[in-house]
Design goal:
This protein is α/β, with parallel strands linked by helices and about 425 residues long. It has one domain (about 55-360): Metal-dependent hydrolases (TIM Barrel), CATH 3.20.20.140. The protein is about 25% helix and about 25% strand. It starts with a strand and ends in a 13-residue tail after the last strand.
């Protein structure tokens, strides 16, 4: 007999269906059997959802699992444990592994390994071989192996003709190019170029590096009439260009990450490498512009760019690699800095973290529709807690939110119908029927 799970009296928040009501949810095996109203089932394990929000499992479309090749930082299983702790049930793994995910064998190997993990793993395969911008991968073969998207991840495809060809090929395969927009000739600094970099006496990367890359990729997508997804938008100018292009009908979607709507370059005054990422933290003007772009729909999705590094790597401000972890704090950061400040409603935030990224990737996720996959998160939208790097569930500790008081805490995550994370002891759950 299939395992049954009954969540009682939760606020069911499902933006994909326009649902916001208090009711019960019944899960049978890996399927969401019923949602809404009062449900009775004597055989189901029962969980009290009173005062909690039940939403579709989050979809993080920008994650580095570091597997294969860099498993001291993270691996498929540790990364998916971190995902589950943050309410993420589906994620898109980036291809900057070793070997790079530029062959069908590597893509299928990652997917095979992830079959028993605590979240559903999708793979963004490489656009060019070795991520070197020299030769296109066989995109059709990568799709056949299971690639859900294509990206050269932390590097742009520097050859514009090659990028144009990739965009057209990907469109023909019904797959999205996920683009890191940057002009590398302007890049290479440790942080945003400006007042703070000058005060610290370190080389900065100007916002123009991102803006020039964004302009090129918008021009390509618009002139070719093909879709593109722009990663981790961090500047006011890039947000403005995306807004204008969308008004003209360009097929552009975009994401940002919590650190860009929550933090600024001033965090770098601590000389703490856990505030270093690429693109870098920007100015207060940029932060507010990113919030505005989220509010008006210019930026479609919130992703984390979850990028684990070892404590040893992150110990020196000047030599540390870029990147921060984020899956365990993303929902809380969104509630704290967006919902709490009136930028988005809770339903709008969930939409940008679940059904919208699912739709961009074309994956079966992001809804609590009966008959669909039983992937959901149960969270307390008002609980305050202090982010603690030592209590993270992944292998790495490089969170920029360490020590901050956040609002909104994941209590339970269900993936494929099974509880993959909960903050309570197992005996705290009622395992008997209640009417």
């Amino acid at each position: 007999m299939a395992e049954k799970l009954l969540i009682r009296g939760a606020r069911i928040l499902d933006p994909a269906c326009g649902r916001d009501e208090t009711g019960d949810i019944l899960i049978v095996g890996g399927v969401l059997e019923q949602a809404g109203g009062r449900i009775s089932d004597r055989e189901a394990r029962t969980i009290d959802g009173g005062g909690l929000v039940a939403a579709p499992g989050l979809v993080d479309m920008h994650v580095h699992l570091r597997d294969p090749g860099f498993c001291e930082k993270e691996d498929v299983f540790s990364g998916c444990r971190a995902a589950a702790a943050g309410g993420v049930t589906s994620l898109l793994a980036m291809p900057n592994t070793n070997p790079a995910a530029d062959s069908p064998e590597t893509v299928s190997g990652i997917l095979k390994k992830a079959e028993s993990a605590d979240a559903r793993v999708y793979v963004a395969a490489a656009i060019t071989k070795g991520l070197k911008s020299e030769e296109l991968c066989d995109l059709a073969a990568l799709k056949k192996a299971g690639a859900a998207a294509f990206s050269d991840d932390g590097r742009p495809v520097t050859d514009t003709r090659l990028m144009a060809r990739a965009l057209c090929l990907a469109a023909g395969l019904n797959r999205r190019i996920v683009s890191h927009c940057e002009d590398l000739s302007l890049a290479g600094g440790l942080m945003n170029e400006g007042e703070i970099s000058r005060e610290l006496g370190v080389r900065g990367t100007p916002a123009a590096a991102e803006d020039c890359g964004t302009a090129r990729d918008i021009a390509l997508a618009e002139s070719l009439g093909v879709p593109i997804h722009i990663c981790h938008v961090s500047t006011a100018v890039s947000a403005g260009m995306i807004r204008d292009a969308k008004k003209r009908g360009a097929r552009i979607t975009a994401e940002t990450a919590p650190h860009y709507f929550a933090l600024t370059e001033r965090a770098l005054l601590t000389r703490n490498a856990d505030f270093r990422m690429s693109p870098p933290l920007r100015t207060e003007r940029d932060r507010l512009a990113i919030q505005e772009a989220l509010a008006d729909g210019t930026i479609d999705a919130v992703a984390t760019d979850h990028a684990p590094h070892t404590p040893q790597e992150k110990s020196d401000f000047l030599t540390a690699p870029n990147g921060v972890v984020g899956m365990e704090t993303s929902l809380a950061a969104g509630i704290t800095f967006l919902v709490g400040n009136g930028v988005l409603s809770l339903a709008q935030l969930i939409a940008k973290m679940s059904p919208i990224p699912a739709a961009i990737l074309g994956i079966p996720a992001g809804s609590l529709r009966p008959g669909g996959a039983a992937d959901l998160v149960l969270f307390d939208p008002g609980e305050k807690w202090v982010a603690d790097r030592e209590r993270l569930h992944g292998k790495s500790r490089n969170t920029p939110f360490h020590g901050m008081t956040l609002t909104g805490r994941v209590k339970l995550t269900v993936c494929r119908g099974k509880i993959v994370y909960n903050t309570e002891k197992p005996e705290a759950f009622s395992c008997h029927w209640t009417d």
